[in-house]
Amino acid sequence: MSLIHALVAAGPTILAEHSAGKRDFSQATQTILSKIPPNNSKLTYVWEQYLFHYISEGGFTYLVMADDSAGRRMPFAFLTDLQRKFTSAPSSSAASDSPAYSQQGSFGPVIADLMHTYNTAPPPDELVRAQTELNQVKDIMVQNVEQILSRGERIELLVDKTDVMAGQATAFRRGARTVRRQMWWKNTKILALSAVVGLVLMWILAAQFCGAGLNQCGNKPSAT
């Protein structure tokens, strides 16, 4: 188990406590309580292989003894929950002047249930949860990169096809310009030929009345 012993005290007076083990830590807890300054503070004491974490605020001390393997974040999360439950209890307002263990019957089971929860299924640590989510995102990104690399041949083939299509489009544009140029010259030749044919037809018609040299139309007959 990670959390071994927890208590709520008003100054050096223990109001309620719970121990998850069989060993008696009353002397150790009294020693730690005597060293806690009266001002608001949050600290960790080392005793043998155990750590005593506490939060002192508003004249009350919330203390938990834990294994070194529990670290600091989880025990202090437990103390924060313990403080919230105690301050929300109806009897907490008058507990500062209460005798020792006056809250044991009402608040001792609350400490026991909370310790059991944190020892069996502690709430997820926010930092650990954020790190887990970050690792999941990183794994997804790695998988995506691996999938892209595995499709390298398809990507290269797609690039080759794109290059071919670009070359075909360039050739098509060049061919279209050539065809337009050829059609322009063809239309120009047709127009020129039509003009020549028109002039020839006009000359033939004029030649029928004026002669082949077109000189008879200007000579009027003289009077006798």
UniProtKB/TrEMBL annotation:
InterPro entries: Longin-like_dom_sf, Longin_dom, Synaptobrevin-like, Synaptobrevin-like_transport, V_SNARE_CC. Gene3D superfamilies: 1.20.5.110, Longin domain. Pfam families: Longin, Synaptobrevin. GO terms for cellular component: cytoplasm; endomembrane system; membrane. This is Synaptobrevin homolog YKT6. It is a single-pass type IV membrane protein. Its main location: membrane. Keywords: Coiled coil, Membrane, Protein transport, Transmembrane, Transmembrane helix, Transport. Belongs to the synaptobrevin family. Residues 3-111 form the Longin domain. It comes from the Eukaryota. GO terms for biological process: protein transport; vesicle-mediated transport. It is found in: Endomembrane system. The chain crosses the membrane at residues 190-214. Residues 126-186 form the V-SNARE coiled-coil homology domain. SMART domains: Longin. The keyword Ribonucleoprotein does not apply.
